[in-house]
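Reviewer 2 asked us to include a model.

Predict the structure of this chain.
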Amino acid sequence: MSQKKRILLIEDEEDIAALIKLQAELSGFKLHVEVDGINGFRAVEREKPDLVLLDIMLPGQNGYDVCRKIKSTPELKSIPVIILTAKDEELDILLGLELGADDYILKPFSPKVLMSRIRAVLRRGKETEKAPKTLTFGEFTLEVDRYLLRKKDKVITITLSEFGILKRLLLNRGKVLTRNQLLDDIHNDDSFVVDRNIDVHIAALRRKLGPNFKWIDTVRGVGYRFKGDANETYDDEDESYEFDELEEALV
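Predicted model (structure tokens):
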């Protein structure tokens, strides 16, 4: 029998903490709660949990400072952090990610969706240990730690979901990934996410990366593959799959 994953929740709102704790235990996790930033960080140092759920608006020390301390401490920096926040401004979200947070979820949220995001982050953590800091393809470079995509010296603006999907595809070059596998990389704060969202994000990536971008193949009825070389062809590829329709919807 495998040992339960240990989660530390740093949250000062008692009702939210109780709800998360109940759902975590039902989902097979062991969860401990701290109610302020100072004692929360001490608990991270003491317990070294498998994952930290971190509220931003905390007494004693705010969540941004706690996240910064975790990610700047060598023996703690590999612990995944998910930010729980009522702040929905993009700059607030990006600040948390820049400080090293692995994911975010906006309040109010579904406890079941939160558990799904926790499992996704824990899975990605295993991949990240081996992942390179930069991923290159053709004239493009994906800077993993900085959440940046460049074409030569030009930065290309993509969403966090598009970044996550592109990174996952690049880490699995030549392998077909299903839409459900790629759903882990969508940052969507709705409680209902369907696999067709992936098609929209892929179409947006193709549009942003240019008309001659041919690195991503659509495998009909299955998902997507990132080529080892832009000129490679596969018998099962079908790049035309609903792409025109999605392009029109995005314009």
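Residues 188-194, 235-251 have pLDDT under 50 and may be disordered. The longest helix spans residues 111-128. We have added this to the supplementary material.
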